[in-house]
Amino acid sequence: MASSDSRLDLEDIGGVTVARFLDRKILDEANIEAVGRELFALVDVDGRKEIILDFDLVEYLSSAALGKLITMHKKVAAAKGRLVLCNIHKDILEVFQLTRLDQVLTLCKTLDDALERF
Known about the structure:
Elements: E1 8-13, E2 16-21, E3 25-26, H1 29-44, E4 50-54, E5 60-61, H2 63-78, E6 82-86, H3 90-98, E7 106-108, H4 111-115
Helix pairs in contact: 1-2
């Protein structure tokens, strides 16, 4: 499903788009921009509204990447959809808690938990 330059692997599960990040580290600006473009296209181009972001492989995430997640959250909300994040590693989860993003974004432990939100 993922093209060679894609940063996401997409799967459709019962009408919900599951986007799995393929990079362990989402740190450099070019990578973050690429991820942002792919994420935003899910809503802006494909018209998807029910989206799960699966962070299972992600070990490091920069603060700039957090900005993309906030923008994605706003895009999905504007489209009257729902965005859920799952499989977030402990260190990244701590950043979400410190920045209070855990109160803005819907976070789930597992993909199954996330799917139950739809």
